[in-house]
Amino acid sequence: MAEDNLHSGHRDRLRQRLMTFGADALCEHELLELILFYALPRVNTNDIAHCLVNRFGTINNILNAPQSELESVRGVGGSTAEFIRLMRDMCADYEALPPEAEKLPDTESLCRYFTGYFSGTAADLCLLISLSSDLSVIGRSSFSAASIMNGNSEIKRIAASLLRSGCSRIALGIVHPDRPPVPDEDDFTIARFIAERLEPIGIFLEDCVICGGGKAFSMKQSGAFSFRRY
Amino acid sequence: MDNMKKLLRQRYFADEKLSERERLILLLSYSERGKKAEEIADNILSVYGSIRNAADSDPVLLMRECKAGKQTAALLALIPQLSRKCAILSCGNMLLDSTSAAKRYFSAYMRTGTKEKTVAAAVDKQFRIISTELISEGEPSAVKVSFRRIAEFAFRHEAAYIFAAHIHTSGAATPSDKDISATLSMKEALSAIDIILADHIITAPDRSAVSMREILPAGTFPPVAGYSTTGEQL
After folding, report:
1. A213 to chain B, minimum CA–CA distance in Å?
2. Size of the A and B interface in Cβ pairs below 8 Å
3. Strands (E) located in chain B
4. I need a surface site. Which of A121, A168, B150, B170 has the fewest CB within 10 A?
5. CA nearest B233: which of B205, B200, B204, B211?
6. pTM for this structure?
7. pLDDT tens profile A147-181
8. In the CATH scheme, what is the code of domain A107-222?
9. Complex ipTM > 0.85
10. A22 vs B contacts (CB less than 8 Å)
11. Mind listing the domains of chain B with CATH numbers?
């Protein structure tokens, strides 16, 4: 039991170091030990990690070694070799470039994006899109217009989602399905609410687009709202 | 062993293609017991949308938002860290003796995360890397680079030359006006105390990278014997 606690303490500390400081805080055999923890939850993996490094040299070589060669190392069975392969594949997927994000470089493309999104929407809805510095869409978050106007805003959830995306620029779309896209007082209130709450944390509103009847109106283009100039 | 884990394992290791959700459940079956793997995989995909986004997230937030355990958070955090380590290792005993070598190295080094960061590398006269360190990390819109920290780093490692690099986490590697003026200020500040800035590399998540020495007019950077500008697109 005491030995179990010793192992679990060691595992916990290695995990904590990874999560706090990243892989640079671990040497190669420690990184390997971390991987082996998951395949061998009840075994001391330190010796196995050292054997793998001695046999293959680098973690690169270990991840890319054929299964049969991995299994030739003492302590590495079929299921451990399989897990190493799974981690290799996960890393390869992570390394593959993500699909190219849609770019919205101007007012026209922004308006097209929002009218497309809101097509068929039957209720007054707002959509916040997160934009990269080159105006690619990197995320989006929807909420009801009523939630802002009734004081039950989900600003905390919205801010968390935007911060998670790493964006510093956003665009807001508001749809009124049953009338033309002419902004009213409530639309200005919502745009101001979003802009004022997010600007202090470094997230800036690029534009607010009102959609209705399949058409769109850009507040920025009309000069109806003060927007940050880059 | 849990039936779902067993079935997914059989399918995966028989080279059958699994969906994103199934791959995530398979992965989490190593860190969560029984049905929890499925439940947490669904939580993660609902909050983060993809395995990649979850792997890049703050592990503490992920644990809280998705009701995941520390083992799961660490397992996901392992993916980008391991990828990056492997990418750096595959650069081998790299000499930063050309703009393409510098671009490749820093593109591998800066690969992970959502925060903009600046790193510096100290090299000897043969362009062998002595050390690479994080100098600063900040908001996507701006990273305030401490020239003092770079100078301290250079002196600590007795660098012959210094490379600086930073990543545009959500965009292209194209340098902005701020990047250009930061490069010029950095070069001036370091030159004034006889530290030679060999290059300033800007990288982006799409693996592209730009050398400021190649971008700026000839003569902007001090001459560095043995450091060649290849013009190779990355």
Report:
1. 31
2. 116
3. 116-123, 129-138, 161-167, 197-203, 209-211
4. A121
5. B211
6. 0.74
7. 777 776 678 878 888 887 778 899 999 999 888 99
8. 3.40.140.10
9. no
10. 81, 112
11. 3-85 (no CATH), 93-215 (3.40.140.10)
